[in-house]
Amino acid sequence: MAKRYDIVIVGAGPAGLAAAEAALAQGARVAWLDAQSAAGGQVWRKDIRYGWPRQAARVITEVVNHPHATWMPQTQVIAAEQNALLLQNEREGWRITYGSLILATGARELLLPFPGWTLPGITGAGGLQALVKQGWPLDGRRVVIAGSGPLLLAAAVTAKRHGAHVLGIYEQASDAAVHGFARKLWRWPGKALQAAVLRSQLAGIPYHCGSIVTRALGEHALERIEIDGPHGTQRIECDQLAIGYGLVPNVELAQMLGCAMKQEGAHPCVDVDTSQRTSVTNIYAAGELCGIGGRDCAWLEGRIAGLVAAGADIDASLLRQQRHARTFAAALREHFKLDPYIHDLAQPDTLICRCEDVPLQALKDYDDARSAKLATRCGMGACQGRICGTALAELGLFPRSGQRPPLFPARLASLGELASSSETEGSFS
Ligand SMILES: Cc1cc2nc3c(=O)[nH]c(=O)nc-3n(C[C@H](O)[C@H](O)[C@H](O)COP(=O)(O)OP(=O)(O)OC[C@H]3O[C@@H](n4cnc5c(N)ncnc54)[C@H](O)[C@@H]3O)c2cc1C
Questions:
Q1: pLDDT, tens digit (0-9, with 9 covering 90-100), for 322-338
Q2: Considering 290, 305, 334, which residue would you say is the last residue of a domain?
């Protein structure tokens, strides 16, 4: 028989943490899970050298040890239907049911293909941060950080803290756009302070605007990159390139549950009301999957979702703060809009699906992602189209298609659980 919980929270980043803290404070019994081995999500990922940031460590310890919380680390949701989830960890698959569900599945990086982008030594900007925090050595390596958005600064700080020689940060947005954004920061004093701290930690590291990495070169691994900037093309010798073009909401689970979506540029995000309710009864969503808004916004929305799911009132000031946080997200989108030139960097032989080695030219004859997938295996690999499908949507080739189970590669034994639960307790389609 599937175990039932009052409230289940998927995702242990700032949104999931705030939701758990708020719901537990109302006396609810909460089950809380994340695919990662430690809580904290992307921004508060536990660093093997430095641990969690102080503020996060306090909340994580309180929530994980709360007597009414069931914490399930290294647990993925691999399939879902209303009121039930199929979970999998490294040992088993099992089914749980819930009264209310809070989705706090966050975001992933937008990686866009360009010649050489699959060479060893190239990762996402946040991807490099994640690897380094989990122990990947960077001591003395020459690192270039590129792409777009404030995440580049955070990635550079982490790389530097772990001994990398950061050669420079290359932002695609123009000088005017970045300075225009900086001039607006006074409206969000917390963000202005955060930016000032990051800049002081990066003293001496050059920050170039209007600069786009067009090519990566190397025989067996990355040796150098080419960058087009305001002063022409530049070649830089480096060991590591960390490149990301902003973030994309992780909506696959919400899509599988039938939650209504809205578009943010080329990518869907979950449509919620002011109480973080989705279009599906008893399902709430908070944080980056409702649109890229950053850590503070995720925290506030998680708190709202946790309170409402636990039956508590939300005060007007919380709603005001959330609205203000969302205006920051809108400013980010406006000022760090991608230069269309980036969409044209991939050449016919550039790999689009790096799991299944599918080049751009192999996709030209198809009208939609599903036909292309069936004929070329594009999107059938370990990432299940999260990287290539998202890139293809951004390039305007195919919109993202709906989601079918499993959400992540699953063991046969876990999928067997799908079959047995549908026989005894109703169907997982
Ligand atoms: C790689 C990366 C690095 C980042 N670094 C920074 C930074 O240094 N500073 C900064 O201000 N912002 C950073 N961000 C931005 C970040 O998205 C937000 O600031 C903040 O972490 C958002 O909080 P959240 O709770 O909405 O989502 P997240 O923090 O992304 O948390 C979502 C969690 O949900 C889990 N999850 C998703 N789907 C499932 C599933 N099906 N089953 C189980 N678990 C699931 C994930 O494992 C993840 O831990 C980063 C983003 C990324 C993608």
A1: 999 999 989 999 999 99
A2: 334
Q: What is the pLDDT of residues 120-160, one digit of tens each?
A: 999 999 999 999 999 999 999 999 999 999 999 999 999 99
Spacing, Cα 45 to ligand 1 middle (Å)? 9
Query: Which residues face 330 on adjacent strands?
Result: none
Arithmetic mean of pLDDT, 214-229? 97
CA of 106 to the centre of ligand 1 (A): 5
| Cβ density class 26-40: b for 16+ within 10 Å, e for less | eebbbbbbbbbebbb
Distance 107 CA to ligand 1 centre (A): 5
Ligand 1 atom closest to residue 75's alpha carbon, by position in its atom list = 43
CA 325 to each of CA 190, 255, 294, 318: distance values in angstroms, whole numbers, following the listed order: 10, 25, 8, 11
Above pLDDT 90, what percent of the chain? 85
Q: Kindly report the number of other CB atoms within 10 A of residue 265's CB atom.
A: 15
pLDDT value of residue 23: 97
Going by pLDDT thresholds of 50, 70 and 90, the confidence category of residue 428 is low
232-238 long-range contacts, CB within 8 A, separation 24+: 236/144, 236/167, 236/168, 237/142, 238/142, 238/143, 238/144, 238/167
The DSSP call for residue 340 is G
Q: Are residue 104 and residue 126 in the same domain, yes or no? A: no
Q: Which of 396, 405, 289 is nearest to 346 (CA)?
A: 396
pLDDT grade, residue 424 (50/70/90)? low
Which of 32, 42, 332 is the pocket-test mutation for ligand 1 (most atoms within 8 Å of CB)? 42
- Check whether residue 164 and residue 233 sit in a common domain: yes
Give the pLDDT confidence of 32-67 residue by residue, as tens digits: 999 999 999 999 999 999 999 988 999 999 999 999
Question: In terms of domains, do 327 and 359 share one?
Answer: no
* Å from CA of 221 to ligand 1 middle: 29
When the pLDDT of each residue in the chain is averaged and rounded to a whole number, the result is: 93
Q: Give 214 Cα–ligand 1 centroid separation in angstroms.
A: 28
Domain with 295, as residue range(s), is 3-108+248-334
Average pLDDT over residues 242-263: 96
One domain, residues 145 and 164 = yes
Protein residues with CB under 6 Å of any ligand 1 atom? 10-16, 33-36, 41-43, 76-77, 104-109, 126-127, 129-130, 151, 154, 247, 250, 253, 287-288, 294-295, 298, 407
Q: Is residue 407 part of a domain?
A: no
